[in-house]
Amino acid sequence: MTAPGYPAPKISLRHIGKEFTVRPTKENPQGSRLTALQDISLEVAAGEFLTLVGPSGSGKTTLLDILAGLTKPDNGQVLVDGKEVTGPGRDRAVVFQQYALFPWRTAAANVSFGLEGATGLDGRKLSRSQRAEKAREYLQLVGLAGFEERFPHELSGGMKQRVAIARSLAYEPDILLMDEPFAALDAQTREQLQDELLRIWRSTGKTIIFITHGIDEAVYLGQRVAVLSSRPGRLKQLVDIDLGDRDGDVDLRSGAAFVEHRHRVWSLLHEEVLRAQEAGHAKIQPDGSAPDETWDATPQTTHGKAA
């Protein structure tokens, strides 16, 4: 369903499903298939800011990977502007929780890295000076003017994440996919970057999908909050958020509207978190193992946490 008042969807998820293979163990010698996502359908409008919350194991990151084209769904399809996503594309940028900056490159050089091979309006590759100019432009946009020549070890955690955001914005994608980008930051820095992100969103008009474990963060940032169920992850409910103009000058978090929205999302999520806790919290590891999984002998089922 499309957000009220928005035009045709920018992003359409149609009946997305994803499973993983858990490698054999002594307890489960035959291995098993684990369902991470099940029948997720969702539409996101151009220019919308959608936040996504769910308990551990609900498949939030898996869903973002599918949107980015880094993982293919087993069922369903993702459409961007009506075209099916079959892999990564320059129309979508991903900001991860880890900064993933090159330590030997300055802030400006980290931002310009994503522009190597990019072309301008004339179809020609951007020159070094053009890439440097764009890097300065986007570092200024994220509030890092004057820090262009600093190396990552000379920057705070919040500054590093700003560089990562600038790098993702520099090649001007339509869609920004963000996987808990502020989770490792202290509370003050996190709130500051939330306001910065809202300012950037307003000034650029990007379509943003933002994953978070924080209910407050989801409500403060999102025009809508998508709540996922415990594993297998399904779209439990979409919550419309109306907080007025979020310009950072008013403490919206203490207002009645914020408290009401937060309670609604908390109520939807609380039951799913309890279910996830009862099922366990094992993650599927890169080698295919799920160390803390418990198994029923017959039939073969799993209870644990999806990637």
Give a quick set of tags describing it.
single chain; 307 residues; alpha/beta; Rossmann fold; 2 domains; six-stranded mixed beta sheet; four-stranded antiparallel beta sheet; 7 helices; disordered C terminus
Rg calculated over all Cα atoms: 20 Å
**Roughly what percent helix?**
25-40%
What class, by secondary structure content?
alpha/beta
What sequence of helices (H) and strands (E) makes up the elements?
A: EEEHEEEHHHEHEHEEHEE
**Shape assignment:** globular
Report the end-to-end length measured between terminal Cα atoms.
Answer: 26 Å
Number of strands: 12
Strand arrangement, largest sheet? 6-7-8-3-9-10
CATH superfamily of the largest domain: P-loop containing nucleotide triphosphate hydrolases
**Biggest sheet architecture:** 6 strands, mixed
CATH architecture of the largest domain: 3-Layer(aba) Sandwich
Number of helices: 7
How many structural domains in the coordinates?
Answer: 2
Question: Unreliable segments (pLDDT under 50, ≥5 consecutive)?
Answer: 284-307
Strand content: 15-25%
CATH top level of the largest domain is Alpha Beta
Strands, helices and their partners?
Layout: E1 9-22, E2 32-45, E3 49-53, H1 60-68, E4 75-80, E5 83-84, E6 92-95, H2 107-113, H3 128-141, H4 157-170, E7 175-179, H5 187-204, E8 207-211, H6 215-221, E9 224-228, E10 235-240, H7 256-279, E11 294-296, E12 301-303
Parallel strand pairs: 3-8, 3-9, 6-7, 7-8
Antiparallel strand pairs: 1-2, 1-4, 4-5, 9-10, 11-12
